[in-house]
Amino acid sequence: MNVTAPVMSESVAVIPPYATMLGFTRYVTRTGPAKATFVGGLRRARERRSGFNPHGQLVKALKADIAFRTGGSYLNGVTDLVKDRWKPLYESVSAGALTYLASLGDPEQVSLAQTRDAVASVGPLAVKINPHFGLRYEDGRREAVRLHFDEAPPTPEAVTATLHLMAGHMDQILPNAEPVLVDLRRGVTHRMDPAVKPSDIESWLTGEAAAFTAMWSTAAA
């Protein structure tokens, strides 16, 4: 007992600051005390290694419709495949997903491309960059796609942070691709604003990451 108790205590204390891209971009949209509360929740989830993705079946259906060029047949049927508790969610998101699928144009001109996750060092914070899939067009264009499922549209801050984080690691994610964030409920695609200076975004995110890291350490106390 005298040996194991200190080891257990130390293992909790040294959990390093970490966020997924979704967690970090949700954090930067918060203000005041809500930031610290949110970071504390992320740390506790990290300690418990908890987490559940309710959108997995929908992502698979969308990717299947793109890969097999089936025009939405998988998306039209996916709501019937999930548990009753998730049906309202799938009903509210699948219509926008069909709109997005149609916006890709001729199904024969677009296909899936393999993407890889990356880990970004944003100041002192490790952030996992994880797009949902990649696209390859017949004209040579490529896109790395991250999906937004929330009921509210993504804020400008969330859009900017997500696209910047992906763009900075595109050599690992999908070389020569453009990052896009798709607001799936509304079928709207967001792209980088060429008028925004990357250096300004980098400074902003580095400051946010430093504050996140400090709150993460405070949550451990």
From TrEMBL:
Name this polypeptide is given: Uncharacterized protein
Natural source organism: Paractinoplanes globisporus
